[in-house]
Amino acid sequence: MTIDTIGTFNLNKELNGYYIPDMVEFYLLEMVLEDYNHPLHDDVSYAYQNNLAIWMDYNNAVAEVLPGFVYPPSGVVHALAAYSTIHPCTVSPGDISGIAATLYWLHLYRLYETMPPMSAFAAPFMAVPELFETADLDEDTFSNLEE
């Protein structure tokens, strides 16, 4: 499975035929991360770094149990961390909710034809509510999706 986040494939919900393209969400995340004066910079940076560490730890755990496991390119891990920061992503043993975790887990299952461990997620992912589709990042009374 290949996911092109700049193409037409979109991991977001539609509302009345509208959605926020993945590349726009990634741009907004990047904008906040690069602006040290942005009011959300510290929260977003902390959540993103937390999620990146969780994904890296997960891949290390998978490498221990799946023979022949090949680590994904760093861009994939950073994209997973970004999605986990933008969208709620809760994962507990036997329960996957969150599009990034679900798609990655299915991708591994397809590649290795065995169930990847889900209990290896060492900590909860951290999403920043102001980045959600229904939130209002720029506080102009319109949701991120409505803009």
Provide a short characterization of the protein structure:
The protein is mainly alpha-helical.
What does this structure look like?
The protein is mainly α. The chain has one domain (22-131). The protein contains 4 helices and 2 strands. The protein has helices at 22-34, 41-65, 74-86, 99-112; strands at residues 90-92, 95-97. It has a two-stranded antiparallel sheet with strand order 1-2. Helix 1 (22-34) crosses helix 2 and helix 2 (41-65) crosses helix 3 (74-86). The longest helix has 25 residues, at 41-65. The protein is globular. The model is unreliable at 1-7 (pLDDT under 50).
Estimate the mean pLDDT confidence. Answer: 78
The general outline is globular
Largest sheet: 2 strands, antiparallel
Tell me the helix content: 40-55%
Report the structural category.
Answer: mainly alpha
The count of domains is 1
Order of the strands making up the biggest sheet? 1-2
Strand content: under 5%
Radius of gyration: 16 Å
Number of helices: 4
The residue ranges in which pLDDT falls below 50 over 5 or more consecutive positions are 1-7
Q: Topology as H/E string?
A: HHHEEH
